[in-house]
Amino acid sequence: MKTGFGIVISCAVASLVLPAAWAHAQQSNEQLAARCAQLGALYDRYNTQRGEGSSGPNMARLGAGIDCQKGRYEQGIKALEELLRRNRIPYPPAG
Length: 95
Description:
With 95 residues, this protein is mainly α.
């Protein structure tokens, strides 16, 4: 059982650690969002269909974009990387 002083110390430590952990998670989300944007722009740049008779929008690309917009970055990135691989479009490694 913790004493009153032990609880105060525990709360103080938590108040220092939790904001740092939150900031790290936020930074990771920002990096993942940037990766989504990078891969999406790369796909769009090389895989635009022009002219009459094009088959319409790529539903996998649209779905990946929606995943990224809704914060499901891992799903969006995975889908975009698969699209780039399938279309033999080179892309930079994550990092």
